[in-house]
Amino acid sequence: MQEALLSLWAGLPVFMVHSGVSLMILIMGAFIYTKITRHEEIALIRDGNVAAALSYGSAIIGLALPLAFSLSASVSVWDIVLWGVIALILQIVAFRLADLFLKGLSSRIEAGEMGAAVMVVSVKLSTAFINSAAISG
C-alpha cells in the first residue's frame, strides 16, 4: 500500500499539470470555435436549437478526443499544447469543409436543420478519430 501512495504522490503533480493544461486548451478551443463560426452557438443552444447543440457538442468532443490521445502519448506539456492547437485548427478546417459541401451551414444550423447538424457532427467526429489515431501513432 505504501508503494501505491508513494507512486500517487510522485505522479500527482504531473497528472495535475497535464490535466489542467488539457482542460485549458479544451476551454480555449471551444471559445475560439464559437468566435470563428458565423452563428452564435451558445445563444442558439439557450433558445433550444438542437442542431446548434449537436454541432457545438461535436466540436467539443472533436477537440477532446485528440487531447485525450495526446495525453497518453505525450512526453511533455508542450506535446499536449502542440497537438491541442493542431486539433483546434483541424476542427475549424473540418467545419469549413462541411460548410463548403453543405452550402450555408451556419444558416442551416441557425434554422435548426437536423440533417445539416448530423452531417457536420459526422465530419467533426471523423476528423477527431483520425487525428487521435495519428497522434497516438
Protein model, in words:
The chain has 137 residues and is mainly α. The protein has one domain. It has six helices and no strands. Helix 1 packs parallel to helix 4 and helix 3 runs parallel beside helix 6. The longest helix has 35 residues.
| SSE run | HHHHHH
| Rg of Cα set | 17 Å
Q: Would you tell me the structural class of the helices and strands? A: mainly alpha
Classify the oligomer: single chain
Helix content: over 70%
Mean pLDDT: 89
The total beta strand count reads 0
Number of helices: 6
Q: Judging from the principal axes of the Cα atoms, what is the shape?
A: elongated
In total, the number of domains comes to: 1
- Unreliable stretches, pLDDT < 50, 5 or more residues? none
Q: Beta-sheet strand percentage?
A: under 5%
N-C termini distance: 34 Å
Short description:
The protein has 137 residues and is an all-alpha fold. It contains 6 helices and no strands.
Draw up the topology in text.
Layout: H1 2-36, H2 41-46, H3 50-73, H4 77-102, H5 105-110, H6 114-136
Helix pairs in contact: 1-3, 1-4, 3-4, 3-6, 4-6
Descriptive tags:
137 residues; 0% strand; elongated; mainly alpha
